[in-house]
Amino acid sequence: MNPQKSHFWKVFLLLLAIIGVNVLSYNFFGRFDLTADKRYTLSEASEEIISKAEAPVIIDVFLEGEFPPEFRKLQAETRQLLEEFAAVNPQITYRFTNPLEEGGNANEIASQFYEMGMTPARINVVENGRTSEAIVFPWAMANFGNKSVAIPLLKNQLGATTEDRVAASVQQLEYAFADAFSKLLEPKRKKVAVMRGNGELEDKYIADFIRKIQEYYFIAPFTLDSVAVNPQRTLNQLSEYDLLIEAKPTEPYTEAEKLVLDQYLMNGGKQLWLVEHAAMETDSLFTPAGSAFALPRDLNLGDYFFKYGLRINPALVKDLYSAPIILATGSGNNAQFNPYPWFYFPLSSSPSTHPVVTNLEAVKFEYANPIDTLQNDIDKTVLLATSPRSAVAGLPREISLEEITAEPNPAEFTAGEQPLAVLLEGNFSSVYDNRILPFQLNNFRSKSEGTKILVISDGDVIKNQLQRGEPLELGFDRYTGTTYGNREFLLNAVNYLLDDRGLINIRSREVKIAFLNPEKAEKERTFWQMFNIALPLGLLAVFAVLYRAIRRKKYVK
C-alpha cells in the first residue's frame, strides 16, 4: 500500500475514534466512587428529594478563603458533595464565596450572619509556632424561588478538637443538604399536635422547638378538655394528627383521657412523651434557705406506660458527667455568674448507632428519672442514658445548694447506666384490653398496627431559656455560652417518628476522615518543601539524560 495513503487512513481512523469517544461520553455519563466508605455515593433518599427540583436551586457556600487544614478538608468535602448533587440534577448550582473578601469589618459581618441565624465560628490558627484567632463562616444558604434555608456545615461538640468537629461535620454533610432540599422542595404533609390541658410547659418555653419543626410539619395545639363532654369526637379529631407531643405535663390524667390517648396509639398515631415523675425546679433553690424538697409526682400514667413496656421510677438520677449549675455572686453591676458541679443535671451522650442519636452532641437533662424497661413483645431501644458513674436518689428528698461544696463520694456513683430516653416500636396492646372502659367507643381496638412511642423522663429537655422574655435556641445556655444537643436530638426524634422516606437514615453513614498531624507537619515542613521542589526537578533531569542517551544511541547507528 502507498505509504502516503496508509498515513492518511491512520489519521482518519484516529479522528474517527476521537469523535466516537466524545459521542459516547456525551450520551453515556458515569461517575465512579472508589472510596471504601462510599462517601461520594448519594443515598436513594437524597436523589429522590433533589429529583423534584424542576427550577434552579442556588446554593451559596460561605466557606471560602484562607483556612487551617481542617477547614480546607471541610471545604473540599462540601465541594465534592455538591458536585454529586449537581451531577444527579443539573438544576442544583452552587458557588463558594468569602464574606470577608471585599475587606469589610469582620465583626460587623459576623453580627449580620448572627442576626440571620448563622453563628460564625471563632477558631485558633497555629502557624509557625504562633497562635491567632480567625473568624470562619461554616454555613451555606440554599435558595429556591422565594424561599431560603440556612445549612450548618460545622457541628458543635463539647470539648472536641477542631479535627473531631470537622470529622463529625463531614459525616453529616449529606444529611444537612438533603434536609435543606427537603424543606425547599417538599410540601408539608404531616400534622403534629402539641398537647394542652394537663399543665404542660407554656408556649414561650417550647417556642424554639415548635418554630423549628414548623419548617417540616403542620403544628397545632390540642386539648383533652372536651373528653369530659364528647370523648368520641375528641378521639376522632386527635386521630387527624400523625404525632402528638406531651411536653412536661404536671396534672394527672383521667381514665377517659388515657383511653383517648390509648386508642389514638391503637389507630397508628405516634407519641412523644417528655414526662417526669418528680416535682423539682431549680428556681425553688434560690431562697434564703438555699434548699427545696423534690417530691414524687403522680400523673396517673403508671399503668399506661407499664402496659407498653416501661416504668418511670419516682426517683432522681445523679451523674458525675453533668452540666453545671450557675450561681450569682455579688449584686447589681458587680454580679458574677459562676458555674458549679451539679450532679442533678446529667449530660447524656450515646454510643448507639441509631439514626436519632448518631453523631449527636450531649443532651442536657434536669432532675431526670430512671426508666426501667419491661419484658413484652415491643422492640425497645435505649437512645440516651446516664454515664456508668451515676447514682439513683429516692424521693422525697431535700436538695440543697450546699451539695456543690461537698466532695463526691465515688462509692455512691455505682448505679451504672440509667435509661433516660427509650424508643418503643411495634404492635402495642391496649391498656384497656379486658378492662371496663371509662366510656363507650364505636370501634375499640385492643391491638395497634405498627407504630412508635418515644418516652423521655425529663420535660426540661424541650425547654428553652429566655432572655428579656424572648426564647433562645433550645439547648443554648446563655450563662455559659454552651450549646447542648437537645434541639438536634428532639428534631431527629420527631423526624424519625414521622419519616417514611428514610431521610433520617442518612445520619447513620460512617465517613472516615484522615488529617495531617499538625506537630509532625510543622516539624517536617522544610523537608517536604524541599522534597516537592527537588523531586520534580530530579525526575526531569533523569528524563533528559535518558532521552539524550536514547537519541544518541539511535542516530549513532
From TrEMBL:
Domain DUF7088 stretches: 36-142
Transmembrane regions listed in the UniProt entry: 527-547
Swiss-Prot/TrEMBL keywords: Membrane, Transmembrane, Transmembrane helix
Domain (ABC-type uncharacterised transport system) ranges: 189-493
Pfam families named among the record's database cross-references: ABC_transp_aux, DUF7088
The keyword Transferase belongs to this UniProt entry's keyword annotation: no
InterPro entries the record matches: ABC_transp_unknown, DUF7088, Motility-assoc_ABC-rel_GldG
Keyword field contains Transmembrane: yes
Domain of life of the organism encoding this protein: Bacteria
UniProt xrefs under NCBIfam families: GldG
Protein name: Gliding motility-associated ABC transporter substrate-binding protein GldG
Organism: Salinimicrobium tongyeongense
Organism taxonomic ancestry: Bacteria, Pseudomonadati, Bacteroidota, Flavobacteriia, Flavobacteriales
Gene name linked to the record: gldG
